[in-house]
Amino acid sequence: MKKRSLDVRGLEAPEPLERILDALGTLPVGEQLDVTHWREPLLLYPVLAEHGWQYRAEYDEQAGIWLISIWKDGH
Amino acid sequence: MNLGALSLEKAPRFWTPVRFFITAPFFGVLAALIVFMDGGQLFQSRWSMASLAVVHAFTLGYIAMVMLGALFQMLPVVMGAALPQAGRAAAVAHLVMTAGALCLVAAFLRQEPALFVAAIALLVPVLVLFGAAVVVAIFRAGKTLTTGRSVQLAALGLVVTVVMGAWLAAGHAFAVPLDRSFTNDHAAWGFLGWILMLVIGISGQVIPMFLTTPQYPKYAGKGLVYLLVALLGAGSLVPLRELQQLVVVLVSMLMLAWATLTLYLLGKRRRKRFDITDRFWRTGMLCLVLGAGANLYGYFGGTVAGTDISVMTGIFLLYGFAVSVINGMLYKIVPFLVWLNLRMPVVMGKLEPGTKYYTPNIHEVIDVQPMKIQFAFHVAGLLLLVASTLVEGVVAYAAATAVLVSSLLLLANLSHATRLYRKYAGQVIAVR
After folding, report:
1. Rounded to an integer, what distance in angstroms lies between the CA atom of residue B165 and that of residue B158?
2. Separation between Cα atoms, residue B383 and residue B136, nearest integer Å
3. How many domains does chain B have?
4. Domain span including residue B358
5. Which pLDDT does position B18 carry in this prediction?
6. CATH code of the domain in which B114 resides
7. B353: Cβ–Cβ under 8 A, 6 or more apart, which residues?
8. For residue range A9-66, what is the model confidence (pLDDT) as tens digits?
9. Does residue B7 register a pLDDT over 70?
């Protein structure tokens, strides 16, 4: 799958959410967005779920960062 | 695409918490009016009826009101725990809370048994049910995040506080002799087990998120809340004077440690630009330190200018700490909700392509200058309230005036935000 990456560390709420949603707005079906965040984007999950985006979130303990991959399955 | 349905579907989400937030300043106004009517006598004793009325106007009408609203908003999104029928439950809870708080305040002022009974009948079901629902919802979500656990403990603390409060209110209603130490337990559970517990839990999430501070260290979350609940339990269940003294000392040190840690983190914000919430929180933390100190000093018999300082302690902890941090947080949450609810239809591609649709910048939802002015009145109110415990006379009227103006300005600032939401949320339907 083709990937795009987005780093939202150090941004004040709601900028991380805004940038992720902006990026998703232009993400074609079949591509994946990899987000780097310094906290878990809990506000994002219900929005993703509600609108059919799939996601996988992992916490990198050593680096102290969250890595969230978001994509939409093609029909 | 059905934009009519969309706006209907979105609207309750905005109003579910916001109706609670908008109500809080009205109780600030009510508290100020009671001080005016009373003429400042209430600053001389925590046991006067006007004093109890003002305390409960703040604890129920302002503090608990906002916290309930915030929990209705936060539980589903931050903790993944949905309250069943949240929208409808919130509307009913809000009405019953408002009526119950008004009844209790009136009951204290008029010493009317029927009003105490009404307050019990309204407040106990709504708050106990809410507390129980929160505990169950977090268990069901199955997460043991620090925030989840401390919110759960805080909800338990709320239930304990309310049950004790109902017992005390029944004492007023039926003239049953009341033990004053029981009132101290009620106040301790209310402040430490409910308010402080919740603020500690929520701040772990919202302070790094909204103020770009480093994260709280892990031990500061879980360790602190478990220690707090253990101390609180030991203090109120074991009737040993020495143990209770130790508990008071340890709880005060815990408050001091957490306030210092929070001040340290606020000093480490990654973005240094002016932020009104930062100012409110620094004020709150400073007052938590002063309140903890005053409580300790008063507990061991210390007096200031020959008077006991329990009223001053209450002012530091409830108005200086709790009202300050809540006021500061409202200036983050309300603009955030306006932004989020106006942004969603655009993000989710529910508008016709090419439709011009305005969403405000979050920092423009409420202007900085009016918030600064409100903050100035809030701090003036705080200083004058403290002064009123030391000096009798006109100072009390000045304190009441400052609290009144601060509450009205808060109301105006929050209303400005909700008007913005109304105006632009309406446009979604207009472009249909």
Report:
1. 10
2. 41
3. 1
4. 3-430
5. 96
6. 1.20.210.10
7. none
8. 878 888 888 889 888 888 888 899 999 998 888 778 877 877 788 999 998 888 888 9
9. no
Contact yes or no for A12 and B76 at CB 8 A: no
On whether the CB atoms of residues A70 and A55 are closer than 8 A, the answer is yes
Asked if A56 is an interface residue toward chain B (Cβ–Cβ < 8 A), one would say no
B77–A21: do the CB atoms touch at under 8 Å?
Answer: no
pTM for this prediction: 0.90
Cα dihedral B317, B332, A44, B269 in deg (nearest 10)? -80
Task: For residue A13, give the nearest of B80, B210, B347 by CB distance.
Answer: B210
Instruction: Give the distance between the most distant pair of CA atoms in chain A.
Output: 38
| Percent of chain B with pLDDT strictly greater than 70 | 89
pLDDT in tens, B154-191: 999 999 999 999 999 999 988 777 777 789 999 999 99
Q: Please report the domains of chain A, with CATH numbers, ordered by start residue.
A: 2-71 (3.30.110.40)
Specify whether the CB–CB gap between B106 and B99 falls below 8 A: no
The tokens 């500690």 sit on which residue?
B200
Interface of B with A (CB under 8 A): 76-80, 208-212, 215, 270-271, 332, 336, 339-340, 343-344, 347-349, 362
Is residue B9 pLDDT above 50, yes or no?
Answer: no
Closest CA to B296 of B260, B262, B253, B232: B253
